[in-house]
Amino acid sequence: MKALALSIHTVKPEEVDTLYQLSVQTFKETFEAQNTAEDMQTYIEDQLNLNQLTAELQNQDSVFYFARLDKEIVGYLKLNFNQAQKESVLEGKAFEIERFYILKLHQGKGLGSQLFKKAIEIGKDKGYKLLWLGVWEHNTKALEFYTKKGLTAFDSHLFQLGQDAQTDILMQLKF
User: Fold this and answer.
1) Which of these is catalytic: 43, 65, 76, 146?
2) pLDDT (mean) for 128-154
3) Cβ proximity of 67 and 76 under 8 Å
4) Which is it for strands 62-69 and 72-80: parallel, antiparallel or unpaired?
5) Which CATH number fits domain 6-129: 3.40.50.2300, 3.40.630.30, 3.40.250.10, 3.40.50.720?
6) 3-state DSSP call for residue 53?
7) What's the pLDDT tens digit per position in 5-64?
8) Is 146 a residue of the active site?
9) Secondary element (H or E) of residue 39
10) Kind plus residue range of the DSSP H or E element containing 46
11) Does residue 111 contact residue 69 with C-beta atoms inside 8 Å?
């Protein structure tokens, strides 16, 4: 069977509506079964609204990427560099993967591995040798994926989802 090949492109400011729709859909697919509707809605309204996403797109130290399979957008990635990072960790020598999502319909096809490989390539091109990310302690699927990719836990932080303070495990990868 031929491997499915993603094309990965930088999200343009005029694509913010598509980014918004994809952000909300993937966030709900990933987390709504384990969280209250109120906490989910609060987070989406506060952190994934059009104004917030537009501001993030305008930050020169943050870059969003769409992952396409043929013409269909099947996932996205957000990388943070320098001051855009959510935490000051690893002595500033790493970059952050803040968001990394593949639509549920397309998971298990090797697309996440391709998108992850692209994140590493982008970091290498910018001179980095280390990346980090935070993953919810109850997101076992993501924890397994990142562990399989060679990431190791080095710390934790709180992630506020509505009224619920949750623990994210911070993971790193040297490459």
Assistant:
1) 146
2) 97
3) yes
4) antiparallel
5) 3.40.630.30
6) helix
7) 899 999 999 999 999 999 999 999 999 999 999 999 999 999 999 999 999 999 999 999
8) yes
9) helix 37-47
10) helix 37-47
11) yes
